[in-house]
Amino acid sequence: MKVAILGGGPAGLYAAYLLKRQNPNAQIDLYEQNAADVTFGFGVVLSDRALEFLAADDPETHDAIVRDLEAWKDITIRHQGQSIRIDGVGFTAVGRLRLLQILQQRARSVGVEPRFGVTVKSLDELADADIVVAADGVNSLVRRTHAEEFGATVTYLNNRFAWFGARRTFNTLTQTFRETPLGHFNAHHYRFSPELSTFIVEVDPETFQSAGFERMDEDASRLLCQNVFAEELEGAELICNRSIWRQFPIVHNDRWSVGNRVLVGDALHTAHFSIGSGTRLAFEDVIALAKAVGEHPNSVPDALAAYEAARRPILQKLTHAANTSAEWYEHFPEHMRLAPWEFAMSYISRSGRLDRERLRRMSPHFVQAYEENSLQGTG
Ligand SMILES: Cc1cc2nc3c(=O)[nH]c(=O)nc-3n(C[C@H](O)[C@H](O)[C@H](O)COP(=O)(O)OP(=O)(O)OC[C@H]3O[C@@H](n4cnc5c(N)ncnc54)[C@H](O)[C@@H]3O)c2cc1C
């Protein structure tokens, strides 16, 4: 069997590893336009149980990733100068580049040598493959080539975000909200190594306009954001890595494969970064794909149909949660009118899936402190 994998992000690299591990005779060609040590962004969070699914089936990869994880148990919400801890919402984080390097090493360990620095320009270049795995991310060439057959749609959220890093660490994943004369700012910040943190700044369209970000280069934007969040940064610098302002794309496909071409990861779906699940979804997609290919060794159409049937219902739940969370952020300046404790409750309840009793079991200290504050009428 000959498999062409387009893209050397988490989905492509892990697909290469799994497919080769289960079928050592398969020829796996993985194409990645970037060099091996280049990527966008900084660190990514994984929920504290996000890697459990790897532990049983692939302890080597699990252990290699876990060694590099930063971990914490609470979220901190900063609003109107107050810091509120929400306990019981554990997360871990890893540098995106570090994660890719681990996955590159795993792919090599089974004999797949990714072809870095190769941009696939047309799918004709992959015509002799039995399966083409589209792990080519949010701007997928495969999806664009067959947009109509996939029933593909890409819609953009209104807010703008820029993905910076910070040369300092934070104790927990922190969501900071600031109202300034320029408008409303939010930062998602958390450490992903002993020295560095991710620092994603999000603004509503009005703030994007009034701050003049449209006319600024990366460095000017960086300096302005550094200034807005000076208190949190405590003198540390923000740093850039292709930290341009973007609108988050919501990718959806009615069908997941066309002929022998199959979508996985961000090429198939996106999940807003506020729920920190895109990387895990990418892993889970390719685990399901490899399983389906293993169970239908003689029929690519059957394998691809089985992959979609098994994975679609699970994915729908998560993308719904991600879209609900994204919707809350789309209105964050309105939520900021709430006093700090009400605001924190609005934040943690934003998925609509946590009633008070579930929340109490998950975050007992937070709920108790919230109720005490409500009784005192201090908001
Ligand atoms: C601001 C932000 C924060 C995020 N935070 C988190 C987080 O905290 N936790 C989390 O789990 N997820 C997070 N994500 C999402 C996560 O980054 C993605 O879901 C994940 O990277 C998807 O993996 P992928 O392999 O499908 O795609 P990608 O990682 O995008 O990889 C696709 C690869 O394909 C390559 N490629 C594309 N086209 C071609 C071509 N024609 N030829 C050759 N190569 C090609 C690209 O160079 C790229 O390396 C975040 C995303 C954003 C934007």
Q: Can you put this structure into words, describing what you see?
A:
This protein is of the alpha/beta class and 379 residues long. It folds into three domains: 2-39 and 96-157 and 248-329, FAD/NAD(P)-binding domain; 160-239, D-Amino Acid Oxidase, Chain A, domain 2, CATH 3.30.9.20; 341-376, no CATH class. It is 41% helix and 23% strand. A hairpin with a 2-residue loop joins strand 5 and strand 6 (82-86). Helix 1 (10-22) packs parallel to helix 4. The longest helix is centred in the C-terminal third of the chain and has 31 residues, at 300-330. The radius of gyration is 21 Å and the shape is globular. The model has no long low-confidence stretch (mean pLDDT 95). It binds flavin-adenine dinucleotide.
Distinctive features:
single chain, globular, six-stranded mixed β-sheet, alpha/beta, D-Amino Acid Oxidase, Chain A, domain 2, 379 residues, binds flavin-adenine dinucleotide
Question: Which structural class do you get from the secondary structure elements?
Answer: alpha/beta
If strands are numbered along the chain, what order do they take across the biggest sheet? 6-5-12-13-14-11-15
* Total of DSSP H or I helical runs spanning 4+ residues: 15
Instruction: Give the name of the CATH architecture of the largest domain.
Output: 3-Layer(bba) Sandwich
Portion in strands: 15-25%
Rough outline: globular
How would you state the average pLDDT, rounded?
A: 95
Q: Detail the poorly predicted runs.
A: none
- What would you give as the CATH superfamily of the largest domain? FAD/NAD(P)-binding domain
Total discrete domains? 3
Question: Main β-sheet, in a few words?
Answer: 7 strands, mixed
Radius of gyration: 21 Å
- List each distinct ligand once: flavin-adenine dinucleotide
Helix content: 40-55%
Q: Span from first to last CA?
A: 63 Å
CATH class division of the largest domain? Alpha Beta
What fold name stands as the CATH topology of the largest domain? Answer: FAD/NAD(P)-binding domain
Number of strands: 18
